[in-house]
Amino acid sequence: MANFSEETILQTLIELIKIPSVTGHHAEIQKAYTFIESLFPKDMFSVFYEEKEGVISQIITFRGVNYKKAKYILSGHIDVIAADEADFFPRVEGEKLFGRGSADMKAGIVAFIFSLLRIAQEGKHYDCALVITSDEEVGGRNGVGYLVNEIGLDPEFVLVGDGPRYDCLTITTKEKGVAWIELFADGVAAHAARPWLGDNALNKLLFAIESVRTLVGKEDIDDWHSTATLSHVNTKNHSYNRVPEDARAVIDIRFTEELADTPEALFSKIQRVLPLGVSAQLLVGGAILFTDESHPIIQKLQTIMQKVHHQTIPFGFGHGASDGRYFSAKNIPVVLIGPIGGAWHAPNEWVHIQSVFALVESTTAFLKETVQGRIFS
Questions:
Q1: Which of 139, 310, 338, 358 is the most buried (most CB within 10 A)?
Q2: How far apart are CA 313 and CA 169, in angstroms?
Q3: What CATH number belongs to 6-175+288-370?
Q4: What residue spans define the domains of the chain?
Q5: 318 half-sphere exposure, CB direction, 13 A CA radius
Q6: pTM for the complete prediction?
Q7: Structural contact between residues 57 and 143, judged by C-beta atoms closer than 8 angstroms
Q8: How far is Cα 101 from Cα 51, in angstroms, rounded to an integer?
Q9: Which residue from 114, 107, 100, 105 is spatially nearest to 78, judged by alpha carbons?
Q10: Looking at the predicted structure, is the pLDDT value of residue 163 above 80?
C-alpha cells in the first residue's frame, strides 16, 4: 500500500521547493519535472512533454487517456520568480511552510499529484490530465497558451491549484486582466544648468505615467477595480548634471471589465492619453478570467469543499492573473482552488500546511464525484 500520509505529502512539497525552478532556468525545470515523473507508477500513468520556443510542459494522465481530449484538467505551473538562495531552503514554522514557490504554486501541484495517486490506488483511471507548465510567471504564452490555442486542449472543466488569498479559502471564479505597458520618451540632452536648451525625457515620461495612472486608477484597495503599478523606470543618462534624452518605464496594469474587455482595447485607450514624444508598446496581455458561479460543476465543487473543510467556502476574485485565462478565453469553465498562502513574489513566501492537506482531500473527492462516469479499465 502506497504511503499517502500527511508527512509524505509535506516532505514531497519540501523536496520540490528545494529545486530552484526559476522561469527560464531549463536545467532546474527539467529536474523538477523528473522528480514529479518519479512519483507516478509507470504501470498506471503516462507522462508526456510538449515544447514551444524552449518552454517545456509536462502532462500526466492515467494510462489510456488521450490528454489532448481529456474532459477534466488540473492545471499548475512549476516556474517561480528569482529569489535569494535562502528561499530555496524551505522551513516549517508552526502551521506554515516557508519557501519560494510554496504558495505560488508548488503546493497546488503536490495536492493534485496526491489526488491522482489516491485515485489510482483504488484501481480507477479517470478521463483527466494534470498539466504542468513552466512559463506562467512571464505570461504563459508558450505553456498553457500553446496547449490551448495550438495543441487544442478543450476540456469540459479546469481546476487551477493557485490560491489568491492569505486569510481564507475561496473558489476563485474571476481574475483581472493583465497588461504590461512599456513607455518610451525621447528628448534632447543638455547641461542641467541650462535645461531650456534641452528637452527632458524623464519629465515627459513622468507626465505620461501620471496620465496612465489617472486613466486606470491608483487606489490601493482590496476590491474588484483596475490598478496601475509602476514597476520599472530607467534612462541611459548616468550623469546628475545632464538633461536626459531618453527614458523608459513599465507599468503593470490589472484591469476589470469596467475599464476594458481586452488588453488590446486597454492599450488603445492608453495610447490616446500619452503626451507628444512618448510612445508605448504592449509587452504582455492577458484576458479577464470569468466563470459563471451557477455552473452545475462549480456548485458541486463548492458543496464538496464545504463538506471537506466543515465551513462555508465562498466564491471570490483574484487580483493576479493565472494560466486559467487561456481556458476562460475559449469559454471553458475554470476556477482556482489553491491553498491559503502569502508573501507571493516576496521573501518568506508561505503556505498554510493544513490547507494543502485539505486540498488533496477536496480534489480527490471532486474527481470521484464528477468524473465517476469516466472510468477506464
A1: 338
A2: 6
A3: 3.40.630.10
A4: 6-175+288-370, 177-286
A5: 30
A6: 0.88
A7: yes
A8: 22
A9: 105
A10: no
